[in-house]
Specification:
binds ligand LQESDW3C; 5-stranded parallel beta sheet; binds adenosine-5'-triphosphate; 2 domains
Length: about 350
Amino acid sequence: MELAKQLLSLAKKRVHPTVLGTKPLSCNGHSAVLFENRILVLKKGSKSDDQIWFLEVDTEYVRQQRKKLGTEVVAWSKGVIGNAEKPIVISGPSGVGKGTLISMLMKEFPSMFGFSVSHTTRAPRNMEKDGVHYHFTEKSVMEKEIKSGKFLEFASVHGNLYGTSVEAVEVVADAGKRCILDIDVQGARSVRASSLEAIFIFVCPPSMEELEKRLRDRGTETEEQILKRLRNAQAEIEQGKSSNIFDFILYNDNLEECYDRLKKLLGLDGFVATSPKSAAPREINLPTDHSVSKIDDKIIISCISSGLDKESKNSIMLDVSSLKGGAPGRTRGLDFQVIGSMDQLS
Ligand SMILES: Nc1ncnc2c1ncn2[C@@H]1O[C@H](COP(=O)(O)OP(=O)(O)OP(=O)(O)O)[C@@H](O)[C@H]1O
Ligand SMILES: Nc1nc2c(ncn2[C@@H]2O[C@H](COP(=O)(O)O)[C@@H](O)[C@H]2O)c(=O)[nH]1
């Protein structure tokens, strides 16, 4: 009942906490169940992907944000049935070939991987499309969004702001794909410190001369920008090799060989991409009429449905013992079991 006391004390003091995360859309009523550090909210008569929500009140993430923002904080997080595979964070100096390797992976395994589309304040290059390569944005807008908690991580890189929104990672996982993040070392450090469990790979150039050649041959930067990126590369390579952020270091000398090593460390060597392997979570549809009770880590949702001549009762048992992640954005690891028949199962 610690959480109940905490909530009561906040209400008495008339504290208005900073609310992080995307709020659930309004609905025709809801049931709420109190846990140790969060409140489970079951929306009545909502779509299957919008039924289970958590209001994080005293989770690790909320405590971190409270410290960072200096205010009381609560955070919305959508409950998702099942788990997602760990995202892959790829870092390395500009021009080393991260984007090239990621494109190869996505081309060979289109149904397995999805790209986390970052936000940036830098101007688009000729072939770059808004919403595909980046979400191109104004600095003032991005700064506001950073304050509102939209980003999992952000950093100032080569003079511009770059950031990964919570949504960018979660839409990929919700589609049943494994998310790939192309971010700099500062961003990788932030993700390492966040609640997102990931695999961290650092891509190294064979030499500074070769890195410079690749950057120049790419022809996308001005001379001034090339020099800035090369200066930053020195420090990034040192940090990439010496810090304990990264699980793997990949040397990108010969592209094909490097790509083969990348596939090997992801367990994809010899893997033939055939039919789409979807890890999309199972879904339940909760009817408008239901009552909720809690037994330890199990939530029993009793549904009442009236037929022509009889009223039948069915129940779903929602297991919340293996919740993963928590805020920001999604709480994964929910599982359910149907007790009795359930017409509403999709
Ligand atoms: N192993 C390689 N050998 C030769 N050229 C390469 C190799 N890998 C990538 N390249 C080339 O180097 C250039 C830079 O690659 P890429 O754009 O993928 O780098 P990046 O690490 O994503 O850079 P940034 O961080 O600036 O986005 C491209 O023109 C690409 O074709
Ligand atoms: N911390 C973050 N770094 C990011 C993100 N998106 C990209 N990047 C890194 O920026 C540089 C430059 O990229 P470019 O497209 O301008 O060449 C590169 O190292 C990327 O990895 C992000 O969301 N967060």
